[in-house]
TrEMBL record:
<dbReference type="GO" id="GO:0006564">
    <property type="term" value="P:L-serine biosynthetic process"/>
</dbReference>
<dbReference type="GO" id="GO:0008615">
    <property type="term" value="P:pyridoxine biosynthetic process"/>
</dbReference>
<dbReference type="GO" id="GO:0004648">
    <property type="term" value="F:O-phospho-L-serine:2-oxoglutarate aminotransferase activity"/>
</dbReference>
<keyword id="KW-0663">Pyridoxal phosphate</keyword>
<protein>
    <recommendedName>
        <fullName>phosphoserine transaminase</fullName>
        <ecNumber>2.6.1.52</ecNumber>
    </recommendedName>
</protein>
<dbReference type="GO" id="GO:0004760">
    <property type="term" value="F:L-serine-pyruvate transaminase activity"/>
</dbReference>
<comment type="similarity">
    <text>Belongs to the class-V pyridoxal-phosphate-dependent aminotransferase family. SerC subfamily.</text>
</comment>
<dbReference type="InterPro" id="IPR006272">
    <property type="entry name" value="Pser_aminoTfrase_mycobac"/>
</dbReference>
<dbReference type="InterPro" id="IPR015421">
    <property type="entry name" value="PyrdxlP-dep_Trfase_major"/>
</dbReference>
<comment type="function">
    <text>Catalyzes the reversible conversion of 3-phosphohydroxypyruvate to phosphoserine and of 3-hydroxy-2-oxo-4-phosphonooxybutanoate to phosphohydroxythreonine.</text>
</comment>
<feature type="domain" description="Aminotransferase class V">
    <location>
        <begin position="140"/>
        <end position="331"/>
    </location>
</feature>
<keyword id="KW-0032">Aminotransferase</keyword>
<dbReference type="InterPro" id="IPR015424">
    <property type="entry name" value="PyrdxlP-dep_Trfase"/>
</dbReference>
<dbReference type="InterPro" id="IPR022278">
    <property type="entry name" value="Pser_aminoTfrase"/>
</dbReference>
<keyword id="KW-0028">Amino-acid biosynthesis</keyword>
<keyword id="KW-0808">Transferase</keyword>
<keyword id="KW-0718">Serine biosynthesis</keyword>
Amino acid sequence: MNDIRIPDAIKPVDGRFGCGPSKVRPEGVEALSAVSRTFMGTSHRQKTVKEQVARLRRGLADFFSLPEGYEVVLANGGTSAFWEVATFGLVRQKAQFAEFGEFGAKFAQAVTDAPFLAEPTVHKAPGGQAAFLTAEAGVDVYASVHNETSTGVAVPVRRVAGADEGALVLTDATSGGGSLDVDLRETDVYYLAPQKALGSDGGIWLALMSPAAIERAYEIKATKRYIPQFLDLVTAVEQSRLEQTYNTPALATVFLAAEQLDWMNAQGGLPWAVKRSAESAAAVYGWADRSSFATPFVTDPALRSAAVATIDFADGVDATAIAKVLRANDIVDTEPYRKLGRNQLRIALYPTVDPTDVVALTTCIDWVVERL
Ligand SMILES: *Cc1c(COP(=O)(O)O)cnc(C)c1O
C-alpha cells in the first residue's frame, strides 16, 4: 500500500489539509525569515515586538470590522487557556452551553469543575448535529462554538432572544473565525487561536471583546474571587492595551499571525475569506454528493461547515488506508478527529488553503480509492 505513488500532475501544490495546526503560507515564513536578526530573539517589552503585537491587533480589528468600543485582547496559552480565563473572569454565577462536539464539551467541563460557580446548563447534540442556546433566567454567560472542528458543524453567531439583561454571549471561533461570516455585535467575546483559519502557529489566544464583557471582567475581579495571575483577564486587557502580554509570547506566532492578517486584509478581508472557504466547501461537498462512496457526515446542508469538511466513506472503502496513502505522498492530516471514531476524512477549508488544491485533493482520493 505504501508503494502507491500518486502522479505529481494530479497532486495539490500544497499538501497540508490539517485543521490545526493548519497550513502556514510559505510567504509568511519567508517574511519571518527576513526579520530573523532584527525581530526574533529581541525583548517583548521593546518597540520592535510591540509594533508587531499592534499590527496583529490592528489586523484583527480591520478584518472583523471591530464594532465601536470592542477591544482586541491577547495572551498566552491558546484557546484552552482562554476557557480557564473565562471560567475565572467572565462567568459570574451560571453559564449555559451549546455542546455539539469535543471543543464545546471541554469549556463546559471547565465551568462544571469550578467550585465557585453553579452547575451550568448544557444543551447537547450528538456528533454531526447542532445544539442551540435558549433563554434561561439566571444565566449570565451563554457559550457556543462557531465551528465545531471535531465534527464539521457550523452554526450562525446570534444573541439569545429573551436572555437576562446584561447576559454575555461567548463564541469559540478558533476554527470558524476567519472562514465563516460573523457580525461581532451578535456576541460579546469572539475568541480564537492563530493556528487554524488564521494560518499562523499556536500558543496564544485572541479575544475580540465587547465593552460589556470587559466590564464583566472588572466586576468579577472586584469581588476578590481567587483568580490565578496567569489567568487574570483584567491583566490581559490592560497588557493588550500596551501592545504586550503578561508573560513572554511566542514571537514567531505573533509575527506570522500579523503577516497573515495583512495578507487576508489585502485580498479583501473577511468577505474575501468567507468566499474562498465557501468555494472550497462547494468543491468538496459537491464531489462527495457525486461520489458513489463518499458522503458528507453532516446530513443537514445548513449545518455543513465551510471551515472544516467531514466526509464519511462507504463500508469497504477504508478511510484510514486512504489517509495513509495520501500521507505517504505528502498530502497530510486528512485523518478524522480521533474520538469521533468514524470511517472518515476531515479536510480544512480555511482561506489559507487554495480551493484548487481542494479540488486536486478530491481527484487524488478518487485515484487512490481506485487502486486500493
Ligand atoms: C483547536 C480548537 C480549540 C483548542 O485550541 P488550542 O489553541 O489548541 O487550545 C478550541 N476550540 C476549537 C473550536 C478548536 O478548533
